[in-house]
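Ops channel
N.P.: pipeline sanity check, posting one input/output pair.
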């Protein structure tokens, strides 16, 4: 962890969830913003259209454990939300989630992305976001990633930890980035049934279109262009949005080493990812 995500720990630990809160949980770079954007539109595009045009996504969906100097903390932003439900984002591994979310039996939407594309996206993000640890070169970043030496720890522990929790917490919807890319409309349908939403086919189609990569990239309330800690000259937040970009980064040797590690760490799980669609 970096101190940015631990400085507010007492408030995070004692955060009071409400029964209708929806927690959007991910390992960083798995498609958090995409799913947050869709959920915000599903809930509020009809009743609160002003939100989409005037509030950046990181205010509409506060990042619970975020505590950047000179910014309101994630817990403060969440506590000042005037919506029902409140949409709240977290990257915490499952064992660190404030216990009130479980006590209140909140709905959780977890999004996971295949390890290779996730690593590439995280590498570019750490290059451009000044509050993230320096990534170093791609090879050393990848070694650290395999060892779990990352803010929020190991990708392997994160995705499998949440997968296991799904078995005991029925209100957890586990989504895959690759499924979203393959058929966003189908995944929006699944989200609606999980959330008990009765959006019309036309509303869902509008949200599907609006949330496509090119549209979100143009939307200043979704593309993080107002986040001063990010340097888009190094790499944009909405970078490529693809499955399989890892092939442009991994050497043959890195890929072989990664596959061996992957097999060791993911041998005992029923969770499976696609690295191309
Ligand atoms: P890339 O860096 O591979 O482009 P997060 O929101 O968890 O930080 O994830 C960011 C990643 O999701 C980035 O991946 C970003 O481009 C991708 N992303 C965001 N919105 C997307 C969309 N509408 N369609 C496809 N990918 C999207």
């Amino acid at each position: 962890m970096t101190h940015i995500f631990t400085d507010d720990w007492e408030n995070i630990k004692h955060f009071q969830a409400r029964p209708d809160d929806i927690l959007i949980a991910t390992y960083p770079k798995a498609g958090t913003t995409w799913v947050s954007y869709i959920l915000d539109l599903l809930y509020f595009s009809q009743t609160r259209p002003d939100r989409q045009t005037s509030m950046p996504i990181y205010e509409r969906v506060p990042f619970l454990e975020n505590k950047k100097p000179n910014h309101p903390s994630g817990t403060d932003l969440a506590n000042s939300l005037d919506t029902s439900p409140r949409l709240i984002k977290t990257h915490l591994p499952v064992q660190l989630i404030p216990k009130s979310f479980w006590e209140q039996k909140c709905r959780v939407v977890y999004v996971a992305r295949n390890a290779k594309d996730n690593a590439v996206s995280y590498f570019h993000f750490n290059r451009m976001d000044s509050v993230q640890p320096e990534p170093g070169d791609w090879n050393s970043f990848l070694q650290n990633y395999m060892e779990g030496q990352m803010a929020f720890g190991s990708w392997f522990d994160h995705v499998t930890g949440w997968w296991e929790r799904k078995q005991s917490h029925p209100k957890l919807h586990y989504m895959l980035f690759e499924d979203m890319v393959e058929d966003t409309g189908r995944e929006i349908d699944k989200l609606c049934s999980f959330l008990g939403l009765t959006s019309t086919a036309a509303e869902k189609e509008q949200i599907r279109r609006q949330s496509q990569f090119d549209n979100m990239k143009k939307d200043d309330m979704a593309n993080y262009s107002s986040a001063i800690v990010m340097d888009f000259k190094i790499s944009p937040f909405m970078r490529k949005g693809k499955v399989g970009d890892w092939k442009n980064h991994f050497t043959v040797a890195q890929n072989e080493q990664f596959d061996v590690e992957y097999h060791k760490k993911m041998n005992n799980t029923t969770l499976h990812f696609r690295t191309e669609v």
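N.P.: looks fine end to end. The pocket of adenosine-3'-5'-diphosphate is lined by residues 26, 28-34, 117, 121, 124, 211-213, 216, 238-241, 245 (CB under 6 Å).
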